[in-house]
Please model this.
Amino acid sequence: MSAKDISRSDVEDFLYDEAALLDEWRLDEWLKLLTDDAIYQIPSTDAPDSDARNALFLIADDATRIKARVKRLNDTEAHAESPRSRTRRMIANVRITERDGDTLAVSANFSVYRYRRNSPLRHFVGRYEFRLRVTDKGLRIAERRVILDSTELGTLGAISFIL
Model:
């Protein structure tokens, strides 16, 4: 199967499943959705189109750092997420923007609500940009880029969970 065989509906189902895994803190299962060379990035809000090699990013993880992040988040002693935040993700306007061999470029709008004890509700809004790869195990995430619409992050608090 190649990228040309994948429909928007297939991509939507994949992204909805990914959102459910993250909302349910099934992070080890979420890791299985990533390719061995996956990257996860959140650029600064003032330079969303920048490159992590020459700009400051909120998060710029390669596959090794993603696994370390998940290990920390799964640790019951993890200060940043103890108790764990509750999140609810809404995914919309899913578009396949490019097809190249076994890779799809995908864009989707998101809204993530974060509930945490003793903290006000936090609402993150923006767009996801994915590079999805077609593998023998189905679609896998090669790149997950989170573009936040917020102009300042101070009111949003720390991003200690997988956005």
User: Anything to note?
Assistant: Strands lie at 34-43, 57-61, 86-100, 103-115, 122-135, 138-148. The chain has a mean pLDDT of 91. The longest strand covers residues 86-100. DSSP finds three helices and six strands in the chain.
